[in-house]
């Protein structure tokens, strides 16, 4: 395959419940795209800027209601878009983002049970029509994800939620994927790391990326 032109801007988000393993594959994908000539920016949500990272600490570790949580997430997202994502795309860079707005619909909408219309209004206010060019959804049985999380790290406020919460989050992701099938690509995250990597490789090869 011929290299990607350095001016080809792409926005790729990585989504999935905690423990699905998406973060493992971000760096590998970044290296793959660099080898094809892309200038790659790695970032995450909540976070990505000094302000958004400070909000991340509150979101992950302080008790709050679902609306407050959503407002903080979208406030961080606005700053992230203005300071990192939009400037990078405007200069032809490829942005790899560990979570974006789909996570709000899955976690605050599916998990917390927030009104999706409220989230849709916030989405419109904060980002207009901006969406990722591709969303890799790392889909995994919540019970398996829970086992992985328990073996990997100390749980934050989200990771402490019960299995039913993550079942709702997974359903939230499925609904979001169904609403945007041209953007979403489901990755079977229950497979081994090499097998998951192979799925991503085949997907991008098919797109000529």
UniProtKB/TrEMBL annotation:
EC assignment: 2.7.4.9
Positions of the Thymidylate kinase-like domain: 14-200
Sorted UniProt keywords: ATP-binding, Kinase, Nucleotide biosynthesis, Nucleotide-binding, Transferase
InterPro entries on file: P-loop_NTPase, Thymidylate_kin-like_dom, Thymidylate_kinase
Pfam families from the UniProt entry: Thymidylate_kin
Binding site for ATP: 16-23
Any one GO biological process: dUDP biosynthetic process
Enzyme class: transferase
Listed Gene3D superfamilies: P-loop containing nucleotide triphosphate hydrolases
Catalytic reaction list: dTMP + ATP = dTDP + ADP
Role this protein plays: Phosphorylation of dTMP to form dTDP in both de novo and salvage pathways of dTTP synthesis.
Name of the protein this chain belongs to: Thymidylate kinase
Species lineage: Bacteria, Pseudomonadati, Pseudomonadota, Betaproteobacteria, Burkholderiales
């Amino acid at each position: 395959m011929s290299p990607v032109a350095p001016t080809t801007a792409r926005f790729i988000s990585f989504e999935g419940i905690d423990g699905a393993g998406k973060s493992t594959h971000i760096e590998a994908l970044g290296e793959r795209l660099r080898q094809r000539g892309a200038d790659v920016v790695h970032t995450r949500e909540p976070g990505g800027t000094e302000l958004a990272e400070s909000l991340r600490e509150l979101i992950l570790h302080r008790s709050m209601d679902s609306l407050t949580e959503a407002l903080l997430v979208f406030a961080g997202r606005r700053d992230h878009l203005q300071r990192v994502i939009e400037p990078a795309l405007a200069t032809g860079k490829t942005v790899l983002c560990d979570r974006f707005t789909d996570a709000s619909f899955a976690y605050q909408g599916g998990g917390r049970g927030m009104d999706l219309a409220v989230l849709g209004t916030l989405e419109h206010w904060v980002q207009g029509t901006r969406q990722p060019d591709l969303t890799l959804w790392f889909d995994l049985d919540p019970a398996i994800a829970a086992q992985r999380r328990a073996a990997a790290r100390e749980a934050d406020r989200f990771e402490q939620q019960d299995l039913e919460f993550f079942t709702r989050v997974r359903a939230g992701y499925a609904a979001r994927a169904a609403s945007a099938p041209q953007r979403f690509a489901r990755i079977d995250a229950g497979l081994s790391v090499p097998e998951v990597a192979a799925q991503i490789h085949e997907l991008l090869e098919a797109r000529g990326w």
